[in-house]
Design brief:
The chain has 337 residues and is of the alpha/beta class. It folds into three domains: 2-65, Beta Barrel (OB fold (Dihydrolipoamide Acetyltransferase, E2P)), CATH 2.40.50; 71-238, 3-Layer(aba) Sandwich (Rossmann fold); 258-334, Orthogonal Bundle (Ribonucleotide Reductase Protein R1, domain 1). The chain has helices spanning 33-38, 104-116, 136-152, 167-175, 193-201, 209-214, 251-257, 259-265, 282-288, 294-322; strands at residues 2-8, 14-17, 26-31, 48-52, 60-65, 71-75, 83-88, 92-98, 120-126, 158-161, 182-186, 225-229, 235-238. The strands form two sheets. A five-stranded mixed barrel has the order 1-2-3-5-4. A two-stranded antiparallel ribbon has the order 6-7. Helix 3 links the parallel strand 9 (120-126) and strand 10 (158-161). Helix 2 crosses helix 7 (251-257). The structure holds guanosine-5'-diphosphate and zinc ion. Guanosine-5'-diphosphate binds at residues 126-127, 129-130, 163-165, 187, 189-195, 208-210, 240. Residues 265, 268, 273, 275, 278, 281-283 line the site of zinc ion.
């Protein structure tokens, strides 16, 4: 049988069967021992899987994870030298950032991780009602926030101001998730993801933090990642409780978010120019000519540096795993590969 993983929590993946006699059924599965032994892969939300459910077995088994069309990967918050796949097989990544507490550096990082997937990226500026009333002043304020986000986003990224109290803005998001398509919702906790999902679906499927607080359990209620169907539309994959997104091998993502710098870098004298000290650096020349802001170049440098350090740490950890006992050699690799 074939199916896709629609829910993942501490327990066993819930797989919705998509063919055969049991088509449409949702079955709890465990990973087949052979699959787990071979490699360390585990099914993630959105994975297409093969399932076997022999009559005599206690539980259905995932026997194969089909190749992923795309995936959202972050640095494992617990194991800093390993990657964690957060979701697979989606068309759009929606980044939720609160309009009233817009953090451009965090947005930049989320954009890089989102663009690394290769999927379409949309930025949702949430809680816009907190920034606006009907005055002209507030309209200006909203436009300024949208512009700030646009300035750090990649050229084609849609920036959408939203509020759960503004039905038109919810409809705008819904229109971006047509039938059969899948969108992943990303953003740190508290930005309004659950409220958005509930507004999109039309009833409460996700607990919002207001509820979490009032039920006396605080914000630490265990919440699961799940695929949520939108009536008449596609699916939204919510990732509640995400504290932070560490980059993981995000060269492609950085290039997508900084196409201006990538294009300038083509004209640097040295192919491996790091745009720090080298003569004939077209990137620094653009800053000096006022065509590129120093702040933008600083952001770029920070992300590149973090990405390189990350790659190096992962490389060292891999070598230690493969050759335990041998002292690690640090690579001196910088800049372009
Ligand atoms: P999550 O942790 O990202 O899922 O965020 P929640 O959906 O739980 O929302 C966090 C808090 O922000 C809750 O108190 C919500 O009521 C509030 N909130 C969410 N969306 C909006 C919005 O559009 N406007 C306003 N004013 N508050 C919102
Ligand atoms: Zn340069």
């Amino acid at each position: 049988m074939r199916g896709w993983v629609i829910k993942l929590d501490r327990g066993f993946p819930l797989v919705k069967i998509e063919n055969g006699d049991r088509c449409g059924e949702e079955i709890r599965c465990q990973h087949a021992t052979a699959l787990v032994k071979q490699e360390k892969v585990r099914a993630v939300i959105g994975d297409n899987v093969e399932v076997s459910a022999p009559e005599d077995a206690d539980m259905a088994q995932i026997t194969k994870i089909l190749p992923r069309e795309c995936m959202l990967v972050r640095r494992d918050p617990a194991e800093r030298t390993e990657a964690q796949v957060m979701a697979a097989n989606f068309d759009t990544v929606m980044i939720a950032e609160p309009a009233d507490q817009l953090n451009l550096h965090r947005l930049e990082r989320e954009l890089v991780v989102a663009h690394e997937t290769g999927a379409r990226v949309v930025v949702l500026l949430t809680k816009m009602d907190l920034m606006s009333d009907s005055s002209d002043e507030s309209k200006k304020r909203v436009r300024a926030i949208v512009r700030q986000a646009k300035d750090v986003a990649a050229p084609g990224d849609a920036i959408i101001p939203v509020s759960v109290y503004d039905k038109a803005s919810i409809d705008e998001i819904r229109a971006l998730i047509p039938e059969d398509s899948k969108a992943v919702l990303l953003g740190r906790s508290g930005v309004g993801k659950s409220s958005l999902v509930n507004a999109l679906v039309g009833h409460d499927v996700q607990q919002t933090s207001a509820v979490r607080v009032s039920d006396g359990k605080g914000r630490h209620t265990t919440v699961s990642r799940q695929v949520i169907p939108i009536a008449g539309g596609g699916y939204i994959i919510d990732m509640p409780g995400t504290r932070g997104i560490g980059m993981w091998q995000s060269d492609k993502g950085i290039a997508a978010v900084f196409p201006d710098i990538t294009a300038l870098a083509e004209k640097c004298r040295f192919r491996d120019c790091t745009h720090h000290q080298e003569p004939g650096c077209a990137v620094r020349a653009a800053v000096e000519a006022g065509k590129l802001s120093q702040a933008r170049l600083d952001s770029y440098h920070n992300l590149i540096e973090e990405n390189n350090e990350q790659a190096q740490r992962a490389e060292v950890a891999k070598r230690i795993r493969e050759h335990p006992g041998r002292p690690p050699r640090y690579s001196r690799h910088h800049g372009k590969r």
